[in-house]
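Case study 2.
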Amino acid sequence: MPKRALVDHRPWLLVSLAAAIAFYFLRDNPIGGIWLMLLKGTGVALLGIYAVRRGVGEGATLIALVMFFSALGDMGIELSFELGGGLFFLSHLVAMTLYLRNRREHTSASQKALAVVLLLGTPLISYMLSGSWAVALYGLALGGMASTAWMSHFPRYRVGLGAVLFVVSDWLIFSRESLLADSPIPDLAIWPLYYIGQFMIATGVVQTLRHELAEEDD
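Prediction:
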């Protein structure tokens, strides 16, 4: 990475990582709800700033909006499960807009099949874990986000896989009241899976957009 880019842009990712790690280890610390809530939102919000500073074109604006809505969702869910879910629902709609505008031209039958599984299986499993039709509706948007990410031309093993990690993290949230009610797994795994997924999505989209711009300029 050029020196100027390192100075101007990578710190947003480094501070984002630091905030996410700090939240993970301080989340049970009595430092005060508002400060912990702000720390929680900072990690993904900084990914949005990274997208604005480093990204190019409409795609960068959309992925930044995805991260900003998600950061608001991270904070909102601390106040109300419904508020947080609504903000994440909006982030998934914006993400689907981005991915549908950047569809992959050629896909195999197995890739299409997995996209269908993500689209239909995500709300189904969400309902099975929660027993809530409202969660199933949210799961439809979540599955739509993951499905369209998988079918987009962004790298599958970064953006597509990041979207799948997001799905798994939400399933663990829903499982707290059912399958894994007495297990420590959700508390240990939800935040790392979610943040790593968002990190992979943001960096994968931004770097792809920059690469495409460089090819156009050649």
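The two ends are 18 Å apart (CA to CA).
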